[in-house]
Amino acid sequence: MATIQDVAKLAGLSRTTVSRVINRHPYVTDEKKRLVMNAMEELNYVPNSSARRLRKQQTETIAVYVPRITNPFFSQMVEVMGNYASERGYQLILCQTSYSRNQEINYLELLKTKQVDGLILTSIENEWSNIEPYMNYGPIMLCNEYNDRAQVPTVYLDQIEGGYIGTRHLIEQGHTRIAYCSGDNHASRVASDRYKGYKKALEEAGIVPSEEWILTNAYSINDGKRVFSDIAKMNERPTAVFTGSDEVAAGIWKEALNQKWNIPNDLAIIGFDDQPVADLIGLTTIRQPIEKMAQQAMGQMIDIIQHKLPSKKKEIKLDFELIKRRST
How many Å is the Cα radius of gyration of the chain? Predict the structure, then answer.
């Protein structure tokens, strides 16, 4: 079995240089990298990653927490993060919390037991005071979710703005009876701020929404179908609905068509995220720059781990974009 010394001899380089190439040291010329890689291939040499990680006292693994992987927003985010991490020599562990506080705390033990080098939270189920103690065991950062008490790097969008521009667009289209649909307006800062944006736009227009128009616990296409059924039964039906996701919006649209409603004449619909399904069916939506969010977050986390940087408050705020299509 070939050793690192054999690789160095065949490449005509020192063992130290070969080690630097294997460990992806930044200050190695492309020519030396080529010589080492060629020698490794010729000798069928495979570095012992476990031993390397033990020496470095790092797992080269980053955990990413999502509430629900079947949500296209989170699945796309995880895919981008995983690809970016791989390019920089790291691997990703996906932890699905299923909106469970206990599950989230259980996964935080991965950091405490040194099974991962860092955590990226895309949503928060617990109070920050319950998460904060785990910062003693390694870096934690937020992506998508945000919290004023969290003194950690955060990549986010101002969800008040997102809720505002979506609702304002419906008002500009002449609607005054606008329903609002989301997962849970109180569980996370993302959801509560988006709802604040909705209310802000209505207040500016002098519109007082009916409590009946506020619909929650909607996360999926099937939930969207249920939401439409609720809307159809209302005495004072809304003429438009702002949803917290393209998935839910697609479900509303599907059931509306089943009931022979015309979109947007009978009901205008606006989604959130700009997933592929939105473009496919012609759904007006609020685009979030998912790829940019994911790359920024993973890049920040890897830099913190590699350079042993202190975990402190650093906000990276990105922008929304209203994408107008035929549903409004």
Answer: 24
Distance of alpha carbon 16 from alpha carbon 8, whole angstroms: 9
Residues 286, 322: Cα–Cα separation, whole Å: 5
Q: Which of 82, 81, 130 is nearest to 108 (CA)?
A: 130
Show the tokens assigned to 90. Answer: 């790291």
Cβ contacts of residue 325 below 8 Å, gap of 6+? 278, 279, 282, 283, 284, 285
Residue 289, judged by CB atoms within 10 A of its CB (0-12, 13-18, 19+), counts as: middle
The pLDDT mean for the chain works out to 91
Of 184, 176, 240, 181, the residue nearest 202 (C-alpha): 176
- Of the listed ranges 21-35, 76-90, 257-271, the least confidently predicted one is 21-35
What's domain 4-47's superfamily in CATH? lambda repressor-like DNA-binding domains (1.10.260.40)
Range with top average pLDDT, 88-92, 214-218, 237-241: 237-241
59-157+290-319 topology per CATH: Rossmann fold (3.40.50)
* 166 contacts 241 by C-beta, under 8 angstroms: no
For helices 30-43 and 4-11, give the axis angle rounded to 10 degrees. 120
Distance of alpha carbon 48 from the chain centroid: 32
Name the CATH topology of 159-287. Answer: Rossmann fold (3.40.50)
Rounded CA-CA distance 59/81 in Å is 17
Ordered strands of the 140-143 beta sheet = 91-96, 61-66, 118-121, 140-143, 153-157, 314-318
